[in-house]
Amino acid sequence: MIVLAAEFLRSAADARGWPPSGPREIAFCGRSNVGKSSALNALAAREQLARVSRTPGRTRLINFFNLKVAEKTRSGGRGKEHEVRFADLPGYGFASGPRQEREKWREMIEEYLVKREPLRALVVLVDGDLGSQPSDIEMVRWAESLGRKVIVAATKLDKLARNRHAQQTDKIAGHLAVPKVIAFSAREHFGVEELWRELLLD
Predict the structure, then answer these.
(1) What's the helix, strand, coil split of the chain in %, to 5?
(2) Which of 88, 148, 192, 199 lies 20 to 30 Å from 116 when distance is taken between CA atoms?
(3) Mean pLDDT calculated for residue range 104-111
(4) What is the pLDDT of residue 59?
(5) Are 152 and 58 in contact (CB under 8 A)?
(6) In angstroms, rounded to a whole number, what is the distance separating the alpha carbons of residues 181 and 179?
(7) What pTM did the predictor assign?
(8) Which distant-in-sequence residues (6+ apart) come within 8 Å of 28 by Cβ?
């Protein structure tokens, strides 16, 4: 995939702050420290796209990014173009604080997953080195119960030997009860093209 443009759009705490409906929207979520920012930057072919909104007070908001990409032709040229919007959801770690804070987090995410019309899929990022956790299972089941398409990618797999990648992704897929888990590494840049193909599927 050739990234033609990528920019931060806005942050929002609720529906009043969401951008108007536009291109296909893909949401990303995962446990704190799963490598979500690195994954977003790898997909956007930018070093600091996901850090634009890293200012105090914004870390618990939904951050929106606009991207324009083109498919690569067999000759390496530019093919069909797509406009895509990424929605970066707060990490699960924010749901482990005081009860009132957890409820606010859940309400914000549920409102988005239920009401956001342009949303086409939710990407759940799982720490491939650590393996799936109960909170990952809960997130997948929750999104499925709300009728959302779920794509799972295992990050940080560069920490494991390549001959262990398939075994680990199969193990995670079994734990999460999903048909497939994409092996992904922002550091070594594998899984980026495969994830992009999934993101653009109807």
Answers:
(1) 35, 30, 35
(2) 192
(3) 88
(4) 55
(5) no
(6) 7
(7) 0.90
(8) 36, 39, 40, 86, 87, 88, 89, 122, 123, 125
